[in-house]
Amino acid sequence: MANATETVLYKREGDYIPRVAAVHDLCGYGKCSLGVAIPVLSAAGCDVCPVPTGLFSSHTAFPGWYMHDTTAILPDYLNAWKGIGVDIDAVYSGFLGAPEQVDIIRGIYETYPHALRVVDPVMADHGKVYPTYTPELCQAMADLAADADILTPNLTEAAIILGEPIGDEWGGVDIDDAEAERIVRALLDKGAKNVVLKGIQRGDGMIRNFVAGRDCEFFEAKNEYLPYMLHGTGDLYASALLAAVMAGRSLAEAATFAGDLTHDAMIVSAKQPDFKNRGVSFELLLGKVTGLL
Ligand SMILES: Nc1ncnc2c1ncn2[C@@H]1O[C@H](COP(=O)(O)OP(=O)(O)O)[C@@H](O)[C@H]1O
Ligand SMILES: Cc1ncc(COP(=O)(O)O)c(C=O)c1O
To answer: From what superkingdom does this record's organism come (predicted)?
Structure first.
């Protein structure tokens, strides 16, 4: 069985600029989703083609947010791409607005069957489902997870995908290696080709991400645990992971790069006013992403 350091999912060639369809929401304030994916992937020399799943005034941790669901416009939006010969090398989805958007993503997979499929199954964290996520949307997201070439759940999202109970133990505390490997293997058995299980804590001052593929061994990447949480770190982690994959790095190298970048961005974020609310600040670190090339 191969080592995760040998699993290269995208071969970057010369000056070619890969195109990534980024299927996420757009938030006016509070850095997350497309506001993270566009700059991070662009810094890795990708042409990011946004497919906005919703327009938000701010991320949903702020009170009084406004949301516009874009589901109705997406079929025409994507058909127009077909008319102008757009080609896509990777489809990267995250926060979705409605279960029908999962069918729309499957349509993108059909149109671009050669594209790498990256599913960040944004639904929940620390045992709680996000406020806009209905049970139908969670089920649709769980189904989509089976089609992923790379799936990046946290523990709560993994439990939802596997149909296992979300309990206190799903808050990210004290999952040992054997349990983490059981969860990752169960997600692979459900259909995902590679899994990165994120954000495992054991109260030892470290935060761990576990990587495995159908044909590759279990790999652990860990970082210092910082004693605060920020919105958008999940999006930064997944965007940085894909940035490294599209730069031709192995999945294990990409998971290590993403953990390091997210950790460093959290430290920069803590120096900004109102940092706990406004979301992760990574702008000063984009040079590290360009350094992947
Ligand atoms: N407190 C933290 N200290 C250090 N790294 C963190 C911390 N929180 C998140 N990260 C990094 O960011 C990744 C994504 O975490 P998180 O934002 O919790 O994802 P999600 O929102 O998808 O649950 C983690 O797996 C870890 O690598
Ligand atoms: C509108 C919106 N998009 C995306 C996210 C995902 O953020 P994170 O990267 O913290 O999972 C959130 C979380 O609050 C959100 O409210």
So the answer is: Bacteria
